[in-house]
Amino acid sequence: MLPTAGTTNGPPSDRQLAFLGLALLVLAFPALLLDSQVVTWTRQLRSDSSSVFLLVPVELMARAAGAAVILLILLVLEQDRRRTVLRVAVAVLLAALVTLTLKIIVARQRPPLFDTSSGIWTSFQGLFNIFQGESFTFLRDRTLESFPSGHMTTAAALAVGLATLYPRWSCWFAAAIPLVALQRICHLEHFVSDTLSGAGIGILASVFVLRHRLWDFLTPATPAGEESEPD
Q: I want to staple 202 with a disulfide (CB 3.0 to 4.6 A). Which of 44, 122, 153, 189 is the partner?
């Protein structure tokens, strides 16, 4: 189970995180009304300034490969808490699978292809149209994989997991989530609604895995007489 906030500065409880994840998913719908305007503003910002590229390191850490490296390092460093690290890995993987499934089903244009003079609903190309585009990579058109943001899903799931491992640093892990969202929006990789939905999925996936103990099949039970791993 996720750590429960024991003090005002402690990490949020699992119920609070679940509420936050659901709230972000709900907010993704009204955010659709802002998507077109934000894309227009972002295009102007990118033409006037290169400062948005300062956020590139944040993007690298939110990649699936970046998350894998972090988790592998923790498996080496946290020998006494390897089961918790594996739980986090399962949460990140589950979040990624959910996101990939939605990308395939929804098939939404990425911001660079979107015509801001048309309605925001034109960015949605129809169910499963991701397999009918002209730019194929692994049999999918990656330009139609905007919804939801995979980077946000990874960042949010990993942040919740790391907060479970290191509760004292939970505020810093939480701060990484909006930074990743800012990077994805400023680099015209995703709409605002994409980032909100991705963050919601990542948080809910971590809460689900860490609370329901879906990690038990990964490692043997703690031998009798040994101190159990702290949650």
A: 153
CA–CA dist 177, 174 (Å, integer): 6
pLDDT, tens digit only, all 231 positions of the chain? 444 444 445 567 888 899 999 999 999 999 999 999 999 998 887 654 445 555 666 777 788 888 999 999 999 998 888 888 999 999 999 999 999 999 989 889 999 889 888 888 999 988 877 665 554 444 556 788 899 999 999 999 999 999 999 999 999 999 989 999 998 998 888 999 999 999 999 999 999 998 765 545 544 444 443 334 444
**What's the structural domain count of the chain?**
1
Any domain includes 18: yes
Instruction: Using DSSP, state whether 142 is helix, strand or coil.
Output: helix
21: containing domain: 14-212
Instruction: For 139, list phi and psi in degrees, rounded to 5.
Output: 70, 15
CA distance 34 to 194: 12
H/E element holding 98? helix 82-106
Residue located via tokens 């702290």: 230
Which H or E run includes 136? strand 136-137
φ, ψ of residue 62 in degrees (nearest 5): -90, -5
Rg, Å, the chain Cα set: 19
